[in-house]
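Consider the following assembly input.
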Amino acid sequence: MDTRQKKRRDGTSGVVTKNNIVYLRERSIAMLKKDLILRNPLRILGSGDREPIKEGEFGGVLAKAGVGKTAFLVQLALSNLLRERNVLHVSLTQPVRKVCLWYEEVFHNISQEYELKNASELWDTILPHRFIMTFNVEDFSVAKLEERLNDLTEQGIFFPQLVIIDGLPIGDESREPLAELKILAREMRFPIWFAITVRPEDALEPAHIPASLEPLSDLFEALIGLKAVKGKINVMVMKGQGSEINNVFLDPATLLIKNRE
Amino acid sequence: MKRDPQKVRNIGISAHIDAGKTTLTERILYYTDRIHAIHDVKGKDGVGATMDFMELERERGITITSAATYCEWNDHEINIIDTPGHVDFTIEVERALRVLDGGVLVLCSVGGVQSQSITVDRQMARYKVPCIAFVNKCDRSGANPLKVVEQLKEKLHHNAVALQIPIGLENDFRGVVDIVKMKAIYFEGRQGEEIKIEKIPDELAEEAEKRREELVDAASMFSEELMEAALEGDIPEQLLIDAIRIGTLNRELTPVLMGSAYKNKGVQPLLDAVTRYLPHPCEVKNIALDLENDENEVILDPDINKPLVSLAFKLEEGRYGQLTYIRVYQGTLRKGDFIVNSRTGKKVKVGRVVRMHANQMEDIEEIPAGYIGALFGIDCASGDTFTSPGIRYSMTSMHVPDPVISLAIVPEDNKSQQNMSKALSRFSKEDPTFRVRTDHETGDTIISGMGELHLEVYIERMKREYDAMVHTGAPQVAYRETITEHADFNYTHKKQTGGAGQYGRVAGYMEPFEGEFEFVNKIVGGAIPTEFISSVEKGFRGALDKGQLLGFPVTGIRVVINDGQAHSVDSSDTAFQAAARGAFKEGFKKAKPAILEPIMKVAVETPSEFQGAVMGTLNQRRGMILGAQDEGDTCVIEAEVPLSEMFGYSTDLRSITQGKAQFTMEFSCYRQVPKTISEELIKKAQEKNRKAA
């Protein structure tokens, strides 16, 4: 009987690091989740275990079109799903199937990156915590979203603990819907992350809010910018916590958030 | 029969249930003079549409069996396979697509791209079938064909371009503007047979220009000549048609036509488009496997003088014996010829050769390459390849899904028993997704298929066509069993008292495995003699047939043997098989076995006001809702629900949505049953076993 088997019979976790080898397959799903959470570069967005935004607060991921906002938000969602927090993903530009594909793709990349052997088992455990809702941009209204959310919560089907809204045009006329969303977020007690496409002329700099978003910046507690520089996508904090953010970047090949070596 | 393959089109008409495929086919046959009167699917005249020739189909208004037929249009010969729309009968759709060169995707102008359209589209992509789309039902309230063009782009990712725009909509739908010719087309006369071509109405001129520009832009990607002509501002019609054709054949462009088959509008231009844009048999690359040459791929040549290669894609038992639908890919199939079934190696003589027109037929002398016909008196299974003697090719095998649901059937009397056997043997030959077996313990006949409706239809057909009255048991889900942990085994099979002795010891371990089953031999030093290793494997494989929890097949397991023992006299093949079975039992119990159940992917399309209620029903049925897609007045809810919870769902859905919602369901995967349910299932199985004992 090898050491691994001995340890497991002793009632220990089954984790052995003999010769620095981590036997991920031997770990329980719970251990695997914990490990992934610990290794998640997104942890540094908050301070310690605290979330970067709290219930009723807004966070925004800013970038020009095609830089990786959806991939970033999906990773944010996955890091919550791993902690068994319910995530509602609202998309106004993509059908349910396409959003599912984003999750599958990012999860696949993560499982490759961390060489997860029992990825499909882990996937099955996180899936019940995700709910996707899609609307046509022109048909979307906060009232409609609230109605749909009530359908879910009143029947005990799904209680979101984090909401992601992708594809909502944010500009000069957005104050009113955003203010309504803020009320909804406070009443239903969840934070909302938005994908925000900035104008081509907007400069993205750390601790600097682009002019086009300035009038709405009071509504957002955290703003994170993604900027493509010399074949890499830099992640920068424009508002809120996360001093170590300069240490992470988005890998353009996999669109995964990684720590700088 | 004509001999110019360039003038042949083998097409399939596929779509969501109720999108109007059968009505459209009926109109096509009428305009091409194949039939002389039009009967509607649910018509008041009680005759029913020509393509839905089974009594049951007429009653239910759905098409169950593909009926092959042909017609002529503009000097072209069009062979049509009418395909069923319900997902339970997908094998029919898949078979049809396998033998077709082009497809017409029928969409409803109100419902748009529905979930079944997505399935059908996926199937077309699998067999690389170029297609054109026809947006039907433009006369219906809420019709919006141009929105459907957008949905084709967004949901199916087609590079869809409208070749027409509607003139009026809903009750006011009068005709279409042809964007290629830039003319208005009206359909007059009692059955829309008189076509009037006029100037584009002024109010549509601007829209038509805009759409034309989009069309030219899209088509010029496939023709530099067209691009140049567009820059010069003078586009010859044929140049545009040729460019659209190239795009369509490469599956990089989907021309969209529109109309209302029911109101006899838009069908003739669709036929024109079939002959213009869909490929002829010589333009499609068909591949066979050379069984004599390591299954190397061979590209077939649609030359009528070359050796014959043909595929039997559908069987039907008719009044005159077995009818075999066949597509010839190379050479010519002649009456009186000898042909060889590549699977069995049997040589048979071709008797009657016919061309099918729904349930009527016409005797012909031969079927040349590129054509579809039918043979009588040929004994074969669906999917068999027939060739000329001297070559042994096999057409690529067809994708056949495993059945997910079973039903026990018991005949009412002796007469029914005999008829039932005949019916079952025919159905299982015709349809590879329909399987029949006998439960050894109860002696019941078990039929398995792809869904509740699939089996229901066969039970009905047994009663109607074979006069076989049967009682049915409750539908039984095809569960599977697996293990969740690593477990060791070390089992000795010993029988050494009286008579010939038996001895064998098998040791090793089993562990979860991603595939079905893997057997690994790590025996060193001959602990088990080499000649008995295959006996051990056979023993393990045999044990997989029946798990110890519910008696369902075991899957997802790797067995590794690393030790054992043999006896010089008493060890034998039987002894080691028995030892392996014992070892399997021992290991299986220790390896935390679990039950897996089939999970169905369910898509419900419902008016938005019922969204909450529908989600509630799915949730009650242990469904995991993946998402809800809001599309204005309607929404689509996608969920994964265990099959065992889906029985009777259509009735529930109808009652909570006032009959306004519909759903499709297809097999997704196997997933572990929750503990409470699994305990209940085990308890039930134990009770059943006790009763049986």
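The interface with chain A takes residues 118, 154-155, 514, 611-612, 615-616, 619, 624-632, 636, 638, 671 of chain B (CB under 8 Å). Ask yourself how this observation constrains the way the partners meet.
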